[in-house]
Design goal:
Blueprint lengths: L6 H14 L2 H12 L4 H12 L4 E4 L6 H11 L4 E5 L6 H5 E6 L4 E6 L6 E5 L6 H13 L1 E4 L2 E4 L5 E6 L12 H4 L4 E4 L5 H12 L12 H11 L6 H15 L13 E3 L3 H17 L7 H12 L4 E2 L1 H5 L4 H11 L4
Parallel strand pairs: 1-8, 1-9, 2-5, 5-8
Antiparallel strand pairs: 3-4, 6-7, 10-11
């Protein structure tokens, strides 16, 4: 339970966070050399990274999803690996395997691409459930088991999974229990006309400038500790819980008409994720305390994949985002 802090303590915390979060501008400047526009996507990547979570990006091909995480890894001086998920992929292709060394007459461990700070799981819904669960176990436990041995994954560790919402042929949709492991699900849209003009010009001129490593992993790990100090008032806690409980029992919030549209509400991972992400958002915005606007800024990304909608909602063309909007309008803001 967080103790109430005095205004002078919050002021002091604010000053410290302004100093500690200065590196975010450096990262943004480097990443923006190769990524034009898509500010929300880069911000969401930082939210997942500093919140020690993982992120699922949904968008049509060609929106710089791979380029964004690659650029972020270069700016942070971290290892990056990419796995293209296909229907014939095996768990050992992701986590690694034992290989028999004939000269020594013993088994050696060959680590898979999961052993990196930034892992891009491209088109995660193209691989069968066995591969998805191997990846998600690594995400949750931060370790993998190969043979009889267990190996810890490096820190920081961020999985960015992408899925294409258009081509659903030959895909294996992520089960709810698995998608719940992602701290955020962000939907990427097309760039604006002006941004696309700049993208086109940059590519015709020979591509972006090289990205320099401006921070190392220790800065990220230190920032994660600072995020834990961001103050969250009891009123904000109640606001978060009201939003979560409204997804489970909408009738308690005068939203009875939503009951037949929701097949299941957000799990406790939803409330933890929303509180954690709101804190990181406040940190990115250089503040030592969380305000309701922080919660509202991240709530769609935290909850859109955690609310199940019924066939009735699909028939009426109502999405989980529409439900979240109605809940935000109904729940009292502190």
């Amino acid at each position: 339970m967080e103790t109430t802090r005095t205004s002078s303590e919050i002021q002091e915390l604010n000053e410290r966070i302004k100093e500690e979060s200065a590196f975010i501008d450096l990262i943004m400047m480097e990443v923006n050399k190769s990524i034009i526009g898509q500010k929300k996507m880069i911000e969401r990547l930082l939210l997942a990274l500093l919140g020690n979570g993982h992120i699922l990006l949904e968008g049509v091909p060609g929106l710089a999803k791979t380029l964004a995480i690659n650029s972020l890894a270069k700016a942070i001086k971290a290892d990056f690996s990419r796995v293209q998920f296909t229907p014939d992929l095996l768990p050992s292709d992701v986590i690694g395997t034992q290989i028999y060394n004939m000269q020594k007459g013993e088994f050696a461990i060959k680590h898979g691409p999961i052993f990196a700070n930034f892992v891009l799981a491209d088109e995660i819904n193209r691989a069968p459930a066995k591969v998805q669960s191997a990846l998600l176990e690594a995400m949750q436990e931060r370790q993998v088991t190969i043979g009889e041995n267990t190996y810890d994954l490096p820190e920081p560790f961020l999985v960015l999974a992408t899925q294409n919402p258009v081509e659903q042929e030959g895909t294996y949709p992520l089960p709810e229990a698995q998608s719940d492991r992602f701290m955020l699900k962000t939907v990427i849209t097309y760039p604006t006309l002006e941004d696309e003009r700049m993208i086109m010009r940059q590519n015709l001129a020979g591509g972006p400038e090289p990205i320099n490593a401006v921070v190392d992993a220790s800065v990220i790990l230190k920032a994660r500790q600072m995020v834990k100090e961001v103050y969250m008032d009891e009123k904000i806690e109640k606001y978060i819980l009201d939003i979560i409980f409204a997804t489970r029992n909408p009738e308690d919030y005068k939203l009875s008409h939503l009951k037949p549209l929701i097949s299941f509400g957000a799990s406790p991972r939803g409330s933890i994720g929303l509180a954690n992400t709101a804190r990181v958002y406040a940190f990115i915005k250089r503040r030592g305390y969380v305000i309701p606007e922080d919660v509202r800024a991240v709530v769609h990304d935290v909850l859109r994949h955690r609310i199940g909608i019924t066939y009735e909602a699909e028939a009426e063309n109502i999405s989980s985002e529409d439900i979240i909007n109605q809940i935000l309008d109904a729940v009292e803001v502190p």
